[in-house]
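Problem 12. The chain below contains 406 residues. Write out its predicted structure in token notation.
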Amino acid sequence: MNIIAMSVPFFLLAILLEWLWGLWRGVNTYRLTDSVSSLTLGGLSQARRFVALGVGGVVYSWAMLVTPIEPWPIEGWMPWVVAFVLYDLCYYCAHRCGHTVALFWAAHVVHHQSEDYNLSTALRQTSSGFLFGWIFYLPLFLIGVPAEVVVVVGALNLVYQFWVHTEHVPELGGLEYVFVTPSNHRVHHAQNDCYLDKNFGGVFIVWDRLFGSYQRELQSEPCIYGITSPLRSWSPLIAWLHVYRDMVIDIWYADNWRDRVRVPFAHPAWQPEASAKQMPRIKADLEQFEKHDPTVTDLRQLSAFCTLLVLTSLLFAGQQVAAAEPWQGAIWFLMLWSGVANAYLMSGRMHAIYRVTELVRLLVVISLAPHFGAFWFVVLTGLAALAWALSLSPAGHSAEPHAITD
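Solution.
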């Protein structure tokens, strides 16, 4: 039973309902471009298994073989509750390191790049967390927690975290002392100085209260979302790689080996002195903060949404393909191509070469779609053709980016 896969339709329905609720109340927290970017990264994260296997599975299998501790019995509710609590403690450690150690931040940063805060942000996930994230859950296997228990409690932990990504729920009284809530998780996603590196819990906020990383949401300090050095792009490639790129630059310009070795393990805000002189990272001025919001016509936004549906359909259809199929990697590449093309379209620019490459992408989708059966052939070709036709619409006029003002 794949709890995450079963939850996806409910996630999408909740996103639709939150959007409609925001429109009805006159407090819409969605922009189509930002949400398309977040959902694209979420889809690519789920499709990562098409091209790469996780390191964690191999290590966890080894840990279960070498541990002298017998596997826990799973009868009754107590082992599950204890495992759930211990998993959240491991998550707290992983999450805290994901914000305070550059190597781990390079993967986790994807989740924080959105400058909006809504349920689509919850699905904005990394594709490189499998490289090192397994380290923090290894103790669970070494103390005998069965693999099936870890999988279930981990999925439940992740599902819980979905609902806290909203601006529509206020503080929840006594629950704020025990559980992660929308209020204290808004703090976690804010880039205000007083909110940075706070509230790392997944389900329980008690870890933050115990270990000194708790911060209450302040009415006097409205949250400004995003990362301190704004991405200014919708591209999944830039979203994935920009911190890795920054680490390489810092290592290159550092003038001694001590600083070079320190770069991946230091706080993400730290730079070697020589690197900071050559390639300083500029922090956003929150007094004059502007969201990345290039003007895109309604027709082109609709094209981007149709391309997102193509990408999502490829994900669902691709999951039906045997892992041994040699062209499963081609599905992932086509999804990435669609995400990059969408990023260019949503940037408000248009070049003649884009029209050609989009026609080529349409033909590739049409050639690949028959492998998934008649239903997916109709869905994929129809959506891809509609997205291509809409992308050819006139660009319209530019406008100033959307500014955040009090």
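Discussion. The chain has a mean pLDDT of 92. Students who got a different answer should revisit the alignment rule from Section 12.3.
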